[in-house]
Task: structure prediction
Amino acid sequence: MPFSQRQKDRFMDAAVHLVLFVIMLSMLYPFYYVLILSLNKGTDSLLGGIYLWPRQITFENYAQFLNDPHWYQAFLVTVLRTVSGTVLGVLLTCLVAYGLSHRELLLRRLYFTIIIFAMYFSGGLIPYYVVLRSIGLLNTFGVYIIPSMLSTFFLLIALSFFREIPVELKESAHIDGANELVIFYRIILPVSMPLIATMALFMGVGQWNSWLDSAYFVQSDGLRTLAFRMMEVINKSNMPMDAIAVANSASAGVTSYSLQVAAMVISIAPIVCVYPFLQKYFIQGIMLGSVKG
Amino acid sequence: MAGNSATASVKANARSTNGRQALFWKRFKKQKLLHLFVGLGIVFLLIFSYSPMFGILMAFKDYSISSGIKGIFTSEWVGLAHFEEFVNDYQFGTIVRNTLVLSLLKVLFTFPAPILLAILLNEAKNLRFKRFVQTVSYLPHFISWVVVVGISFSFFSADIGVVNKALMGLGVIDKPLAILTNPNYFWGLSVGSAVWKEMGWWTIIFLAAIAGINPSLYEAAQMDGAGRLARIRHITFPGMKGTIVVVLILTVGSILGGGLVGSNFEQAFLFGNSINNPTSEIVQTYAFKVGLKDGRFSYAASIDLIQSVISVILIFSSNAIAKRTSGSSLF
Result:
């Protein structure tokens, strides 16, 4: 009897690992597939039959990406908005949270009510559009950065993080005559690196992936983001008429489809490189957020 | 006498209010930098969160965008005319059905998936393998929907999709499946891709709940001869119950946006096209089209408002139900 129990357990173990392996494969293979597709000659990819490795290796798709002003410009805009949006977002959100983290702060109740109410209710897209239009943010680079500078979600996470910082750290600086801005910048930020890493990851990924704001609030061609450009191609090629991607003229076997695939890989690559190293932090971060509701 | 003491106490009161005010300002001045920091955030919210709330008025008015922000207040009232127009629109039934079906299907599948994955991961004995699978499973969460739809395109497209090519090559089908365009596939495609993208991410919360279970419970159960499935049923699952309720409340509250995985709009917008439109057009995409594309701001705002009001009601009622039935709630 105990023997058969052990056999059953072994069978269960094998089954669990097998199912997990299949799940893992289903998540990895799509990324691997677009990678090999991006390294294959575009016109050759259209024939199909590529499953495990590229058939005609080429870097032409990436070269074409950099040469195409549309894609290249979108790439630059995306890098720029990711860097500036993340830095400014982390700074403002932390600054507000730091102010609120003082328990003796007057009017704290009022400030909190204003913040929590804004978390649950919104005016909706159309009135938001009208506001952005009337303050002149429509069709500017600023629309990518300024409205998203304050994240109420991360504000609450930062708040509970700052409250854990020992008061003695601040007090010694107070005695030395430093004002709150200096304390924030010299003492609070340096000891909050795990928090900042998590916030920067999420804000950065949000900025990097963003296309809705480009679709809603921007018309100018030069301000398009990478994700928006990919969205354009998808919108066109979902239609069966255009589905067979037409070869770009004057290029070595690059099709609009293979160019799109290269763009996707370029969009995925930085995320793959960054997120595994921040795993420990964001797991803590999301737990903190979920406890606070 | 009585009058005298009354005036005296009024005077004393006035003096103490004055004193309190003075004290308040003194303390406020000391904290002025902190108030400046917080004030920045408050001004920010007033501009980007609160001022759009007044814009809701336009749902009951005939607003034209050329009149700017002032027009929200000065334009003519039309009562519920826009709401009536939406309800009487020939597409109304289809749009509402699509929104509800898509939302329900997504919650039905995306809610249990991470719970199952968390249980599976918890059962995996090989820790390095477990950690690797976990890390991989987060990856899709960080990728934009645009890229996910792009990847789906390279897998499911009728002309170049690897799935169609493979199935044709194997002789399973002799005509490519129009997964991306046939209206019958849209819901399955959306639900499947949502599970694929967000399953690993939400596993984090459930794994943390499992980590909080006292290991001696498992040992005791094993001594009593409880098998694997019995341990999952009687220890792991009850240990996750509180977390499951909280996540369920959040899910129901946000159901019209697609539950916790959200993304109804993105999926309908990106996977949607004129051919699968009969199943892919939802309230949000419709509001976007008539609002920002056709410039009918008041009409779109009224459609938006219907959806937000239903969402708020859902949040509060699911919270109340959870409070009554299980004692766990958000607020």
